[in-house]
Amino acid sequence: MGKLLRVNTKERTFGFEEVPKAYEGLGGRALTSKMILDEVPATCHALGKANKLIFSPGLLTGSPAANSGRLSAGAKSPLTGGIKESNSGGYAAQKLAKLGITALILEDKPAEDDFSIIVINNDGVEIFPAGDLVKKGNYEVMETLWQKYGKNVAVISIGQAGEQCLKGASMNQADLNGRPGRAHGRGGLGAVMGSKKIKAIVVDDKGAPKIEVKDKEAFKAANKRWVDMLRNHPVSGEGLPSYGTAVLVNLVNEAGAFPTKNFRSGRFDHAQDISGEKMSELIEQRGGVVSEGCHPGCVIKCSNVYHDKDGKVLTTGFEYETIWAFGAHTTIKDLDDIAMLDRLCDDFGLDTIEMGVTIGIAMEGGMIPWGDGKAAIDLLSKVGEYTSEGKIIGSGAVFTGDALGVDRVPVVKKQSLPAYDPRSCKGQGVTYATTPMGADHTAGYGVTANILDVGGTIDPCKKEGNIELSQNLQIATAAIDAAGLCLFIAFAILDDEDGVPTIVDMLNARYGLSLTPDDVVALGKSTLNDEKEFNRRAGFTKVDDQLPEMFNETFPPHNTTWDFTLDELSKTLSF
Amino acid sequence: MGKLLRVNTKERTFGFEEVPKAYEGLGGRALTSKMILDEVPATCHALGKANKLIFSPGLLTGSPAANSGRLSAGAKSPLTGGIKESNSGGYAAQKLAKLGITALILEDKPAEDDFSIIVINNDGVEIFPAGDLVKKGNYEVMETLWQKYGKNVAVISIGQAGEQCLKGASMNQADLNGRPGRAHGRGGLGAVMGSKKIKAIVVDDKGAPKIEVKDKEAFKAANKRWVDMLRNHPVSGEGLPSYGTAVLVNLVNEAGAFPTKNFRSGRFDHAQDISGEKMSELIEQRGGVVSEGCHPGCVIKCSNVYHDKDGKVLTTGFEYETIWAFGAHTTIKDLDDIAMLDRLCDDFGLDTIEMGVTIGIAMEGGMIPWGDGKAAIDLLSKVGEYTSEGKIIGSGAVFTGDALGVDRVPVVKKQSLPAYDPRSCKGQGVTYATTPMGADHTAGYGVTANILDVGGTIDPCKKEGNIELSQNLQIATAAIDAAGLCLFIAFAILDDEDGVPTIVDMLNARYGLSLTPDDVVALGKSTLNDEKEFNRRAGFTKVDDQLPEMFNETFPPHNTTWDFTLDELSKTLSF
């Protein structure tokens, strides 16, 4: 196995150590969550010296396994006050894995306000002043670092939001073109990186040996089945490559679960104008890229490059959740305005879901008019200007709601709800309510059986079956995140009995083990239990596993309400 | 007994009802807390329609009992997220009692943004538009309402902070000269009043009958003993009338427990410049009022009127906690600057403790320089200007710390610590940590035995005895708050065995009862249990009954640390 790399951000020192017994066999989210539980006092200030920011590639990351290039980042979240894992594509996961780094741990914090850059390569680690890059956006940071270190390095950086330690701050990763289109978006982890005064991390694997695969033949055979499976599923093989994740706009709108105007109804009159179909059409017209991967070895390729009217790159990695948040939620219907808002988030280093919901709350509070894209762009731009207005917006929906006296704020554990209404997509609602992460669609994507008829069909508007759906998906997702696999492989493994066994075969071939599917389920459960234990120590109770009272309102067009009790949710969701 | 007056702020209607059985025999804090527990869903949004704002005079209020004119206000707190009782002097308590109103309950909230004024008199209730008073400060509001309704009416109003629903907002009461020098300061209850769009409440008791006292002779005899007891104690009879509460500056500074520069040391080099002695000297020189009561029937008279250099009224009710918060905590040493900050708080309707601590956090975060009084005045002025900067500051210390990325924020349950360091005044520290109110000195004033040698002597720097001290004081305080008595009667009753029996005699004579001191203790306990139960339902755990990690730092001059464990605190503080 690899090593742990600990960086003391106060002393600007580092050290490698063997992976201790307690952490053996863990990777990705399973490792970051276990380490946070073991090493971070749950009641500490998330921006204080006791918090740690931990990066870990998944168990399959660095191997040739398709779609295994995700990097988990973990910390106590400044947004939720609980544990957080947020994973991203980009180059960093695979390069860290190839350098034999099982986890990179940023510890302590400097007293003074000087930002540093960490460079990790095959020779070791360098830490030096960030210099001119301070107060710069991610676009410029990544371009500068690629100029300096070459186009083969990974970059994880924060923009102005992370430097200001705002709760909406993301950590962005250079995508395959060196643009900040990929993000560890949720939970404000960029603020933790900012509190430790790390502006960027560069990872260069030049000279590093290839990942050792114990049983090469078995691995190759399993990976072939794996690739075929991903390519043959209609969602990962057809829908996502053709229209990106925005393929969901029309589907979720049609299902009546597309939250519009701060969760007042489930259909947006202008869904067509912001749909995946419309987006792909514009990208093709303007010479962008309809389909590309977020990391080498991706066979789904749901990412993209979106050009403006003049054919210049406007934004990249333009996703469904972003389009919903800045679109239907705020009633902005101009896709170019939404793309500009996405670009600003990438550049300042902000979570697009949190920011879209926040802009809606700013509209709810009368700060800017509903549906006004230009006003939204102006308002979001303040984050990059270090103004008080920008600090409010950049701190997210709860913060902005509090500043404006708004009482309809769609959050769980202070994190904004994503793009599926919990009343008319109840499997997703259970996940929002009960995942230790705060409202998060990726933690247990009930949209599958609720709307896409993947892995069965469960009525999205009724309670029956949706707790079990969410529970099973939460377990599976925790395991997927531990393996470093892209969440979108879930479509294939839910519909193909050979899915999980194939993943197990790859794990066994990679490490020379003889795991069973039950072991993978056990890993998912133990990860969730670690996370729930951290939250319990941080002071969370079953009260935190529920949606806010605004979801008691009846939701058109299906006239649903949120009708799970605290007891129903808390009894069934222990693992 | 009296009646409940319920006002529906959405429909602008009202109704009187008999006091139901469950609320019989309760008054003041005992009643507001019981009603909040019974009628407000603990997980509701504090600014939502489900929260209620409840006012209740104490059990002795309206009677001739000395120092019994306090009005309790209760609600779910927008600041702490838990239950809140905040009491104030002024005219309102006695006038409500004389009108036979056991509790005034504001319910629901209007959809639109129109503020109203409620006028309560012997003929009933009127509710009408606030008109020109919207966006006006409390000074102008009170002056206008006294001009309209005469100088015999009580006014409870909010300023710009409450209108904006900011978490630091107070509700202010007209003092004996019609100025907003008295406040329901803590817990952001002004934001709840603002969310219900009530700008002011006028209470006029003209024509109301006198309070009925069942046994007039017994009452008169007990009250005579009571007045003598208060006048003969050195603190309530001498220290407080001579120097106001600011008499504590030199005492607490000398004890090394005067938190300076955001709780970095226990002695302030310029304590002399902001002391009670200095304040009284300036008041006399400039023609102010050294000593006046906060309500009719007060025999302690610790309030005052502080003039500026030109002999004009600068502020009133200028208190120790305010002087500490804007003074030693921020290192501002000019008493006139501090007085101006106090005036701004009274005018905008802001809690002076929360705002002083917040200004210190703004200094910690580099927003303005340490010790700069003029910069602090400019910054606090923004609250009245409805700017984003003002919204941040007006939302308190946690909010401002979050906006600025500051991790040293001295709060419990998100409420700022008052003017006694918990490491070198541990009885007070236990109260901060464990009271259901969030950090609050009045909830169990351990300064008595820790520093003033009242009610015995307990070493303030050691753990021994301080949990019990705080626990007993919390029980006694809850009972005092239920009776509507001023907290400063505690000095006398702690040192005089006849103290509690005298209060019991007055209660019995007033209502024709035969209570014992044990009954009073039971009332205090049951009130605390109601409050703790509300907080439990709202999601509080023992984790919330502890100080933040910044108090692990060693504190000079006595080099103390905060050394109580969660278990020590949680085990001993159930009633």
Please explain how this structure is put together.
Two copies of one chain form a homodimer. In chain A, helix 1 packs parallel to helix 21, helix 6 runs antiparallel to helix 20 and helix 12 runs parallel beside helix 15. The longest helix of chain A has 22 residues. With 575 residues, chain A is of the alpha+beta class. In chain A, the strands form four sheets. In chain A, strands 2-1-6-3-4-5 form a six-stranded mixed sheet. A six-stranded mixed sheet of chain A has the order 8-7-12-9-10-11. In chain A, strands 13-14-15 form a three-stranded antiparallel sheet. Chain A has 22 helices and 17 strands. The radius of gyration of chain A is 22 Å and the shape is globular. The first copy, chain A, is 39% helix and 14% strand. The model of chain A has no long low-confidence stretch (mean pLDDT 97). The two termini of chain A are 28 Å apart.
Structure in a nutshell:
Chain A is built from 22 helices and 17 strands. Chain A is α+β, with helices and mostly antiparallel strands and 575 residues long.
Major sheet summary line of chain A? 6 strands, mixed
- Residue runs with pLDDT of under 50 for 5 or more positions of chain A: none
- Please identify the structural class of chain A as seen in this structure: alpha+beta
Proportion of residues in helical segments of chain A: 25-40%
- Radius of gyration of chain A from CA coordinates: 22 Å
Compute the separation of the termini of chain A in Å: 28 Å
Strand portion of chain A? 5-15%
Widest sheet: strand ordering of chain A: 2-1-6-3-4-5
List how many beta strands of chain A DSSP finds. Answer: 17
Tally of helical segments of chain A:
22
Q: Please tell me what the overall shape of chain A is.
A: globular
Overall mean pLDDT of chain A: 97
Which quaternary structure do these chains form?
homodimer
**Largest interface by Cβ-Cβ < 8 Å:** A-B, 41 and 41 residues
